[in-house]
Amino acid sequence: LNTISDLISEAVNNNTGEGLSFKKLAKLFFSLVKIYRISDWLALVQTLNRRRKNSFGKAIFLDEILARLHLSLIKKYKTNFSTIFLNAGAHIQHHYFLNSKVLLGDKSPGANPDWYINPGCDPLLEVFEAYDAIIGWYRSEGIKVIVMTGLQQVPVAQSEFYYRLSDHEKFLKLIDVPFLKVKTRMTRDFLIEFSDSEELRLAFDKLSMVSVEGEKLFGELDVGDLSIFCSLTYPRQIDVDTTVSLDGESIQLLPYVNFVAIKNGIHHCEGTRAATDFP
What we know:
The protein has helices spanning 2-13, 22-33, 38-51, 57-77, 88-96, 101-104, 123-140, 168-174, 197-209; strands at residues 153-165, 181-184, 189-193, 211-212, 215-216, 220-224, 227-231, 243-246, 249-252, 257-267. With 279 residues, it is of the alpha+beta class. The strands form four sheets. It has a four-stranded antiparallel β-sheet with strand order 2-3-7-6, covered by helices on one side. The longest helix is centred in the N-terminal third of the chain and has 21 residues, at 57-77. The model is unreliable at 275-279 (pLDDT under 50).
């Protein structure tokens, strides 16, 4: 289970554009073999090809893998109460909300570019159908189900492009930002650590001045004890003509970033409460 957890975490958090190596994929496969039932494998193989057709399908497939794994463990240990966290629904709302006809109807702007998603797809409908099926798996095993959700999401007024620095240390050196150590975080975030307060001050001033078309590249800079938590917040598409301005010089930005996703949905500040019964 630790192997499965570590490798899936690595695959999900890897924004370098490279997937798991063959060796790690084989290690993941044989770890799953030890836990999965034959019927689980047959069911997952049937859905794999369908999920591979679209990028968002990988998130749904991961939830299906985790649900099958969870069911196997419940049956093995005869668990009385257990919880599972599934994230594809939230992920898909964040990044594909504007392509959903099931939620937006004919008002759906379909604002995402065709290279990002097939305009004929409805990712939210697919994940809702997948969750309906997953609930059915538990019910078919005689397991009572309680469904709890986080805050609801609403579509953004304008899509935001998410990028991540491909090599954080290399880029910081390029723009002459001093640092002791750089620790990557989720998606666009990273933490810079410094040897002393003077390094921190110089880095903060430098990072604050980096801009793209008059807009800050790092719009969030949270200063801590000899550290700065940074987020690459520039929200528009980066192409070959996109340049970073610093100290009167222009640097092409595209070679130093990796595309992550497009943001379509944000959490509602209050959300709503609803109760659903599965008799």
